[in-house]
Amino acid sequence: MDPAYLAEITEYIAMGMGVTLKVFGVTLLFSIPLGILCALGKLSSFRIIHAVLGVYTWIFRGTPLLLQLFFTYYGLPIITGGAIQLGPEVAAYITFVFNYGAYFTEIFRAGIQSIGRGQYEASKALGMSPWETMRRIILPQAVKVILPPLGNESINLIKDTALCSVIAVTEILKNAKRIMSRDFDITALVIAALIYLALTFIVIQVFRHLEKRYSYYSIK
Amino acid sequence: MKVVTTENLHKRFGKLEVLKGIDLSVESGKIISIIGPSGSGKSTLLRCLNHLEVADFGSIKIDDEYICEADEHGKAVYKSGKEVLRICSRLGMVFQNFNLFPHKSVIENLMEAPIVVKGESKEAAMEKAEKLLEKVGLSEKRDAYPGQLSGGQQQRVAIARALAMDPEIMLFDEPTSALDPELIGEVLKVIKDLAEEKMTMIIVTHEMNFAREISDKVLFMDDGDIIAEGPPKEIFENPDHPRIITFLDKIIQKS
Description:
The complex is a heterodimer of chains A (220) and B (255). With 220 residues, chain A is mostly helical. Helix content of chain A is 80%, strand content 0%.
């Protein structure tokens, strides 16, 4: 195999990595707070909020991410008569944030619910308000429970960014596919796979490190 | 001076009436033990006092402030959440299962509420926390996490944590029931030390010898009612109520 060819296509494919990382970063940055808020909403006692959030998580977890991408990118301009016409990257950000926000909602809800009633009671008996209790006692403990599933979702997210290629976002897979069709050669695909493996490896290490940091105490 | 007063306190869990009109009054500096069979409503009564349970009927007064007052139908009407939290902050609570914050070290457990709730400075909170740890004999565990401590040590930390809020009254909800027998003594000793300082205490317990030794007054609860109350001598040595006799017999047989 020609090293010059390898270098050339690797550089081209890796150019897509910037977009992949941007989608990854933006999604995590916004969907995590969104997930926390929606989880708190689901745990609150407001029925209307429950119903709205129930529909939200159902729709976004219950339909393919690919379909949601198509909908945001192709569907919204049609529905709104052209009023909302998003660029491919922005459409990807929005879809991913809401999609992952829905999954994080359920992960955070389960994490918060795993903290026993005794912690709330002890906090209240010490005079802490519900908000202080949530912020200082419950959420920090929930993080420990949430980290493993959050790590899983983050790995999924790296791989899901490949879906953006279908709405003309020039990320890793899109570039690899271009070279593949140009050269009738699968080397580009192998290189793309290696890049994904490297990225997911980093994510795995980051979460391994985070989990270690939270292992200083045990929940008895 | 009366520091805790309840009148006609009722509490229901679904169809089950757990408290059937409790009239309780606790004088400052006194130690009250509440004894009785499981499910008699002892813990529920204690938990109503600091609003961990919401009473259905009747009134609860701490010092001279009501946290809930009976309306014309006897229904318990509570003050706002903030007010209740403020008034109840005079009560410290110790739980059967300790409920320490597992993600915080021992000293952080003690400093948390004084800093967050009372706005104490970190230095002041730490100084007080260290004194309290010394008092419960756990100074050397200040940087340990609750998961690294024995049950008895955890409960002593929990007592110190409650004391860090400078409560006027301490509530103990079966403080030794979750402990291995050999660890009970160390916890009881800490409570006895508090008794010597004339701390007002309400203690739900199954430790009859302890209740007898320490209490100014013993309440015997059965089926949601206080069926007898009096000095420990009266309750333990001359029980006149058949329920109490049966209960005490069972306890003695067990031990």
